[in-house]
Every structure is written in C-alpha cells, then in structure tokens.
Amino acid sequence: MSLFPSVFGRNHPGALKGEIDRVFDDFFAGFPAMTGFAAGDNVYMPALDLKETKEGLELTADLPDMKKEDIHLEVQQDRLVLSGMRKQEQESTTDEGFHFRERRSGSFRRVVALPFAVNDNADVVARYDNGVLRVLIPRPANPVDNTQRVSIS
C-alpha cells in the first residue's frame, strides 16, 4: 500500500497537513523541554523573557488564567525558580468533541540562570496582573566575584 494516494489524494485536502503535523508531533515528543508542543501531552510551559537593564533584571512570564496563589517564585543566589500549577477550565477527562487541543494545563517549573548572584537582602519585586508576571531583580551594589581559578594537575 502506497503512502502517496492518502497524502496527496484529491479526496483528502487536509491529509498532507495532517501527516506533516503528525511527523512534527512525533519528533518533538521525545524532547523533555519541548513536550508542551507535542499533541496529546498535558504539559504547560510558560513563555519567559529576561531583560537586563541599568537597574538590574526584568523577568516577564506569561501565565494566563492562573491565580496568584498557584504561582511559586524564589531566588536562589544566581538562579530564579518559577513553578506552579495551571488548571484546566473543565475537569473533563475525555477529548470528545475536540478536533484538536492546543491549550495546556499542568504543573511547570522553570529555572532561569541569572548573570549575577542576588544578595539575601535584595528588594526583589514581583507583580502579577492580567496573566502577566513581572519580576524586578535589582543589580547588587557590590557584586561579589565567586570565580576561583582551579589548577590542573
């Protein structure tokens, strides 16, 4: 049986697109960081932007339809950890009636490496408004260089 009649047949105008989508979904399903793109996975991975300014760092995260209570944010020296749980609108366990589903839900955890260590007493400010989280991390006044030369024997 040939693949070409079902993919390129005139009776199936969307068959080629469907086959290409299936190939990409199968390909990306093997990558842990990309599982949010594979159809059928129930993974949510929020989009992040990290911008350096004169004052410090500005992180912006898109977290639509989430409650502030479901978001956990912490700074660990030179890392920012953002985690949480995005819940589905409906608790339906079947995909009955859907042609496709792209909106994701589930738990997530993003760890962002920062270009400098954050002091314990730094005034990190986080605001959540209309599904967008903005985090302002001030640049340390006296940055500590933790670089240590290691001799090779």
From TrEMBL:
<dbReference type="InterPro" id="IPR031107">
    <property type="entry name" value="Small_HSP"/>
</dbReference>
<feature type="domain" description="SHSP">
    <location>
        <begin position="38"/>
        <end position="153"/>
    </location>
</feature>
<dbReference type="InterPro" id="IPR008978">
    <property type="entry name" value="HSP20-like_chaperone"/>
</dbReference>
<comment type="similarity">
    <text>Belongs to the small heat shock protein (HSP20) family.</text>
</comment>
<dbReference type="InterPro" id="IPR002068">
    <property type="entry name" value="A-crystallin/Hsp20_dom"/>
</dbReference>
<dbReference type="Pfam" id="PF00011">
    <property type="entry name" value="HSP20"/>
</dbReference>
<protein>
    <submittedName>
        <fullName>Heat-shock protein</fullName>
    </submittedName>
</protein>
